[in-house]
Design brief:
The complex is a heterodimer.
Chain A (H helix, E strand, L loop, with lengths): L7 E10 L6 E11 L4 E5 L6 H8 L7 E6 L2 E2 L5 H8 L2 E4 L11 H7 L9 H14 L15 H14 L4 E5 L7 H18 L2 E5 L11 E6 L2 E3 L11
Parallel strand pairs in A: 3-8, 3-9, 6-7, 7-8
Antiparallel strand pairs in A: 1-2, 1-4, 4-5, 9-10
Chain B lengths: L47 H18 L1 H32 L1 H5 L4 E4 L12 E2 L1 H6 L5 E15 L6 E9 L23 E5 L9 H8 L2 E5 L2 E9 L10 E5 H7 L7 E2 L1 E6 L5 H11 L5 E4 H14 L3 H30 L1 H10 L3 H38 L7 H23 L12
Parallel strand pairs in B: 4-8, 5-7
Antiparallel strand pairs in B: 1-10, 1-11, 2-9, 3-4, 3-10, 5-8, 6-7
The chains are: A alpha/beta, B alpha+beta.
Keywords (chain B): Cell membrane, Membrane, Transmembrane, Transmembrane helix, Transport
Main location (chain B): membrane
Subcellular location (chain B): Cell membrane
Chain lengths: ~240, ~425
């Protein structure tokens, strides 16, 4: 497979906050590739630049230096409109569920489908219902987010991230706000659904309990990707 | 548990991935686009209805969710709406009542002295001008009109009050006043007059007395005059009540008045005559101490005095504007706090690929929904208040379609502006800060 066909290719990406003397580099010449269907965990201490990297890849931030190709779209010099377009093809999962409190679970999932024209309301809601069933919440479609437990909300967020048939999933510590059991369930669900669809996942985490899910673990320190002892696919049985 | 069946992903074709299912767009990479899977949505834009409907629906769902906030926003818009309606209603009613006397005088053309600025302080013009106007062949008749004020003694209580007197040749049929036609015969008799039924009640229960006893005498000025019938004019700023009488009876009441000094001349044209042409010719032949006006122009002349020479117009425009500003601030506050308390959700939507334009449409949609939701009850309350207040103040308060649409436009604009201001808060919903 050529490099162009990879969902994610970073070459020499650097990023700094601030100007002049206050300039503080957070990313230094990061190279990274994610292959189709691969599940990559990004770990490292706070301040190592993981989150900044994720926001760059997610087209939430303008690039400064280097090249970042996400799903075939070069982000260096991309316009705001191009970045908005790209975000529609990426599924985001946040630390908090960030569901819209005034919509039901099903309507929240359907929000990911309303971005693409060509489907009627009935189809969108049916598809959202199927996504909720896939995360095991088929019977909670009409619940408001505040009637759901933390784990259920995060599962709705997973359904929402996957509903738009994204080419890449970015997750930022999706288990941080959850207890051990529900956190593990959510991430396994995410992995299984992504595998079925052949979608790559880039997941930032501090949580050692979910390291075994990864095809590959990348450690970051001080804005650089460092060789990590677990950088090989974990294959414990 | 998670033993992988396929080899660790390596560089090279991934055999288990069908190219047709690649979730990103191969056409961007210069590859041949795969055949579109059956039923896959074509890449096209939203229709205009859907592009407006979906954000509007999201706005409505958000508004609906917080009932208390929605209620206070609607109350704010309603308040502004009622305030503007009342201000504009009072303004129109005052101008309308200010010109009630002149509006009730129906004739084709009027002559007035150019220095007359308002009808209750008229500058007299020579009676001769009425005869001169007859020089034009299209003029059928011209009658002088005398205006003055005299005291009227309330027939029930004996209290005296200033009354507007209108004297003209009531038989000539040149000038009509609502209700006057059936009274022309009775008004020929000496010392008779017709009373304005819409005069303020302080003048006494004239209509009731007339019904009970038939024509009866009332002291007007220093003379006893007989009320023979009722006409309809309405109180104006200059006078609380009106009586109409023949020219001769007018002279009997107002003895000091020179008959040669008239206040207005009413002109009737032959049927089919061109009024504008006749007015132009009158201007050409009459000396410059005469202003030639049509009836609407006469009313407008009076009205412009109240609009420009008094602060009435300004006061009510200012009141309306304040209502709109207060309403706008309320709507802005509601929308602003709505956005501020949902920044994370808005940022999430942005991260999902919703554009600023879309979210702007949501905020503006919410503003315009509030406009509609607040206007409807505000309109209903205003109609009710017009009725109640109109009856209490004898002001001609009435809702008309033009004012209804006008105020709706103002409320719509007010909410739209508030929405545009609140939209700036959306910039703070930065998805890069979400991670």
């Amino acid at each position: 497979m050529t490099e162009a066909a990879l969902p994610l290719v970073l070459r020499g990406v650097s990023y700094a906050f601030g100007e002049g003397e206050l300039r503080r580099p957070v990313l230094r010449a990061v190279d990274l590739e994610v292959r189709p269907g691969e599940i990559v965990l990004l770990t490292g201490p706070s301040g190592s630049g993981k989150t900044t990297l994720l926001t760059l890849i997610g087209a939430l931030r303008a690039m400064q230096e280097g090249s970042c190709r996400v799903l075939g779209q070069e982000l260096a010099g991309a316009s705001e409109a191009q970045r908005v377009q790209l975000r529609r093809r990426i599924g985001f999962i946040f630390q908090q569920h960030n569901l819209l409190g005034f919509l039901t679970a099903r309507q929240n999932v359907a929000m990911a489908l309303e971005l693409a024209p060509g489907r009627g309301e009935r189809e969108r809601l049916a598809e959202a219902g199927r996504m909720l069933a896939a995360v095991g919440l088929g019977d909670r479609g009409e619940s408001m987010p505040d009637q759901l437990s933390g784990g259920q909300r995060q599962r709705v967020a997973v359904a929402r991230a996957l509903a738009g048939r994204p080419g890449l999933i970015l997750a930022d510590e999706p288990t941080a706000a959850l207890d051990r059991q529900s956190g593990g369930e959510v991430v396994r669900l995410l992995r299984d659904l992504a595998r079925q669809r052949g979608v790559a996942i880039l997941l930032v985490t501090h949580d050692p309990r979910i390291l075994d899910l990864a095809d590959r673990i990348i450690a970051m320190e001080d804005g650089r990707v460092v060789p990590a002892p677990q950088a090989d696919p974990v294959r414990t049985g | 548990m998670n033993a992988l069946t396929r080899p660790a992903p390596a560089f090279g074709p991934a055999p288990d991935l069908e190219p047709a299912l690649l979730p990103w767009a191969p056409e961007r990479m210069g590859e041949a686009p795969p055949p579109a899977p059956a039923g896959a949505p074509a890449r096209r834009r939203f229709g205009p209805v859907e592009a407006l409907w979906l954000p509007l629906r999201l706005a409505w769902r958000q508004l609906r969710f917080e009932k208390a906030r929605l209620a206070s926003a609607i109350a704010g818009v309603m308040f502004a709406c009622v305030l503007v309606f009342m201000q504009l209603g009072f303004r129109a009613a005052l101008f309308e009542s200010a010109t009630a006397l002149l509006s009730a005088m129906r004739a084709d053309i009027f002559l007035m002295h150019p220095m007359t600025i308002v009808s209750f302080k008229p500058e007299p013009l020579p009676r001769l001008r009425a005869s001169q106007a007859l020089a034009l062949p299209e003029v059928a008749a011209a009658v002088p009109v005398y205006l003055t004020q005299a005291t009227w003694r309330n027939p029930a209580t004996g209290v005296r009050r200033a009354m507007q007197l209108v004297g003209f040749d009531t038989e000539a049929g040149v000038m009509d006043i609502p209700g006057l036609a059936p009274l022309t015969e009775a008004l020929k008799r000496p010392d008779t007059m017709a009373f304005d039924i819409r005069s303020r009640p302080e003048f006494g229960p004239v209509a009731r007395l007339l019904g009970e006893r038939g024509p009866f005498e009332v002291q007007l000025g220093h003379r006893m005059m007989e009320v023979v019938g009722l006409i309809e004019i309405g109180p104006s700023f200059g006078a609380d009540g009106n009586v109409v009488m023949s020219e001769l009876n007018f002279r009997r009441v107002v003895k000091e008045r020179l008959p040669s000094q008239v206040d207005l001349v009413a002109i009737k044209l032959h049927p089919g005559a061109d009024r504008d042409a006749a007015m132009a010719r009158l201007r050409a032949i009459l000396p410059p101490d005469v202003m030639v006006l049509s009836q609407p122009q006469l009313v407008q002349h009076e009205r412009s005095y109240w609009e420009t020479a008094t602060p009435i117009g300004f006061i009510f425009m200012f009141g309306s504007l304040m209502g709109l500003v207060v309403g706008m601030v309320i709507v802005y506050q509601i929308l602003f706090s709505d956005i501020a308390s949902h920044l994370r959700e808005y940022a999430t939507l942005k991260a999902m690929g919703y554009s600023n334009l879309y979210l702007g449409k949501v905020v503006l949609g919410a503003a315009l929904l509030l406009a509609v939701l607040g206007f409807v009850p505000g309109f209903a309350i205003s109609v009710l208040l017009y009725d109640v207040v109109g009856k209490g103040t004898f002001l001609p308060l009435g809702m008309d379609a033009a004012r209804g649409f006008g105020v709706f436009g103002m409320i719509f604009g007010m909410c739209g502006l508030a929405g545009l201001l609140a939209m700036r808060k959306l910039r703070d919903a930065n998805p890069a800060d979400m991670f």
